[in-house]
């Protein structure tokens, strides 16, 4: 499934902040985590991630530091700041409103599940 560029762009900052709220991370690991969380539906690239990280850094929501990984390779690790956590909290509330609104309207178009038939997964298989 192809997710629209607009939707990917709108969700990028909250996704990155939420991943960093789990713990410090570096670019490739963030890209891999996005793929895991989306069951492979979101396939980010370096060219998509790093502008988001740099913008979040300019805004003071993340901080970066260079460190040497166990493999001996130098990597730039990112961590969420206090301001980033506050921004993520606001973003989460906003996304919850959008999610609830969409679920509410989509439920009006969804037929009741038939006996023995599992309901469609949210957003992945339209039922209308």
Unreliable stretches (pLDDT < 50, length at least 5) are 122-128
Helical residue percent band: 40-55%
Which range does the strand content fall in? 5-15%
Shape: elongated
Description:
The protein is α+β, with helices and mostly antiparallel strands. It has one domain (5-107): Arc Repressor Mutant, subunit A, CATH 1.10.10.10. It is 55% helix and 12% strand. The protein has 4 helices and 3 strands. A hairpin with a 5-residue loop joins β2 (62-68) and β3. α1 (5-22) crosses α4. The radius of gyration is 18 Å and the shape is elongated. The model is unreliable at 122-128 (pLDDT under 50).
What topology does this entry show?
Elements: H1 5-22, E1 25-26, H2 27-37, H3 46-58, E2 62-68, E3 74-80, H4 82-109
Keyword list:
alpha+beta; disordered C terminus; Arc Repressor Mutant, subunit A; 128 residues; 4 helices; three-stranded antiparallel beta sheet
Summarize it.
The protein is α+β, with helices and mostly antiparallel strands. Helices cover 55% and strands 12% of the residues.
């Amino acid at each position: 499934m192809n997710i629209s560029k607009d939707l990917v762009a709108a969700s990028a900052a909250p996704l990155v902040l939420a991943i960093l709220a789990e713990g410090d991370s570096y670019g490739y690991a963030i890209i891999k985590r996005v793929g895991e969380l989306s069951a492979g539906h979101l396939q980010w690239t370096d060219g998509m991630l790093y502008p988001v990280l740099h913008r979040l850094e300019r805004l003071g929501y993340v901080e970066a530091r260079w460190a040497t990984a166990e493999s001996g390779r130098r990597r730039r690790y990112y961590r969420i700041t206090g301001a980033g956590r506050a921004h993520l909290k606001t973003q989460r509330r906003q996304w919850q409103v959008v999610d609830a609104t969409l679920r509410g309207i989509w439920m009006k178009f969804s037929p009741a599940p038939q006996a023995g038939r599992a309901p469609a997964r949210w957003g992945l298989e339209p039922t209308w």
